[in-house]
Design a protein that fits this description.
heterodimer; A: 113 residues; mainly beta; 0% helix; B: mainly beta; six-stranded mixed β-sheet; globular
């Protein structure tokens, strides 16, 4: 089992461009979570998805950010018209159900220049 | 509001010694989970230890153990026989049984001195 795979590991975007972050959960895991980590901070919850459904998006900014977890393929976190303040590490985690603990990926570091 | 507080931004310990990282949390829930995660320079988030609030016995994983004081809402991590590979950021975290999001503290950076 390859674990939670995130790509790219590093992503550089100019202000105004779009960023697309991908997360492939562990095999058999149907629950996906996205977190954001600002420098020298802990992780902050953004969104929780199950296949084809957004369950909780209370931590995700209402504008420019969206997430999906289609029936086939990875979960995608999309940030439109990126700004410098979007620079952070974005982590994905997956679990087989609500009760079991998460397994985190290694994160994508987004830098907006 | 549920919060997790780590009052020690940085700590240092001599190799082979024991160190304790502090964590307090605030909640009105009775059923919840507490975690310690390790984040080395590779950035990978690694689960170190987990405690269910309904369990009175403190969790232990090899050289890692916790001191869970439910009434005081305290959840400290003790690392025995510290090794160079223990150097990392350590995050205390909390999750209720009703909710799916994990709430993290700001972390403690642990340095191991050879």
């Amino acid at each position: 089992n390859a674990g939670v795979m995130q790509n790219p590991r590093h992503l550089v975007r100019r202000r105004g461009q779009e960023a697309r972050l991908r997360c492939s959960p562990m095999k058999g895991h149907s629950h996906v979570y996205w977190y954001r980590q600002l420098p020298e901070e802990g992780l902050k919850f953004m969104v929780y998805l199950q296949k084809e459904n957004i369950i909780d998006e209370s931590g995700m900014p209402k504008e420019r950010f969206s997430a999906e977890f289609p029936k086939e393929g990875p979960s995608i976190l999309r940030i439109q018209q990126v700004v410098r303040g979007d620079s952070a590490a974005y982590f994905c985690a997956s679990s087989p159900d609500r009760v079991y603990g998460y397994t985190f990926g290694s994160g994508t570091r987004l830098t907006v220049v | 509001a549920q919060t997790v507080t780590q009052s020690q931004p940085e700590m240092s310990v001599q190799e082979a010694e024991t160190v304790t990282l502090s964590c307090t949390y605030d909640t009105s829930e009775s059923d919840y989970y507490l975690f310690w995660y390790k984040q080395p320079p590779s950035r990978q988030m690694i689960l170190v230890i987990r405690q269910e609030a309904y369990k009175q016995q403190n969790a232990t994983e090899n050289r890692f153990s916790v001191n869970f004081q439910k009434a005081a809402k305290s959840f400290s991590l003790k690392i025995s026989d510290s090794q160079l590979g223990d150097a990392a950021m350590y995050f205390c975290a909390y999750r209720t049984n009703r909710d799916d999001k994990i709430i993290f503290g700001k972390g403690t950076r642990l340095h191991i001195l050879p």
